[in-house]
Amino acid sequence: MFAKKNLSPQQLAFLISLVLATFISIGAYFLKPIWWISLISFFTTMLGSFLLIYYSIQRFIYRQIKLIYKLISQTKASKREEFYFKNILPQKNIDDVRLDVEAWATQQKKEIETLQQNEIFRKEFLQNLSHEFKTPIFSIQGYVDTLLNGAIHNNEVNTRFLQSTSRNIDRLVSLIDDLDEISKLESGELKLNLENFIIQDLVKEVFEALSFKSSEKEISCSIKKGCEIQILVYADKEKIRQVFTNLIDNSIKYGKNKGIIEASFYKVDGETALIEISDSGAGIAEEHRSRIFERFYRTDSARSRKEGGSGLGLAITKHIIEAHKQTIHVRSTLDIGSTFGFSLPIAK
To answer: Which end of the chain has fewer CB atoms within 10 angstroms, the N or the C?
Structure first.
């Protein structure tokens, strides 16, 4: 009649009172073998024990369970929750309550692990941010101190030091601008100026703008054969220009001499276009791929800083794509190259 492991408070009280009433009525019959006295004893005991046991369960056990649920929710109970505690919770069996508590414990464990991981990222971010600022600031300080100590009167030195100081100031300004932009992207303050444009034309413009860099390493930049058919997308053109600039500039920085950079474009369906930027560079090790879109994360700190940049390019790129409600991903193999792919909505 009842599942042994899934008894409700009413069922548990009924079974206990049934057993008690049965034994008491049988004992009463043996003491005085009159059937109606035994029957009265049975129903009286049954009713009294049922009410007493059910009240005890409700009063003590489920009161404690109610406190557990309030502790889990960590809020003052609303009218809806009070109705739940009063009418629905008593209908639950202990197994249901155990499952609820286990689910809560699992969720809490995940939240704690996430907080611990975020704390690690926060510390890394602050350390990286400090390093990014200290490097140009210390350089500027060194140049200025040298000039103030007499080098300013040396025409062979002062111009070179001032030029180096200017470059470090430019780096600081660029870093602050990137931090400001990523903050606006994360907070949603930066509004997108959406328009229709041909995506192939935009990547050609970026290839041309960065041609002086690619030519230094004899890197060939082109659109993949078969992807020349124009695709009209609906996005913020200048922001997507920035995405292309960040991705292609990285491919040039970390690319091999006489390597290639190739852009490809595909219509995934009637609503989305897939854009990929591939290179034949050094590639990204597997342990770094999941973190390369984090702020200031560098797969090779010494080499990355030598190449320049704020370390925020890929983080900004990711936020721009996500601001378009799209996704970005990376595929890479060491010593073979990397492919960064992202989606954009097709113009309607």
So the answer is: N
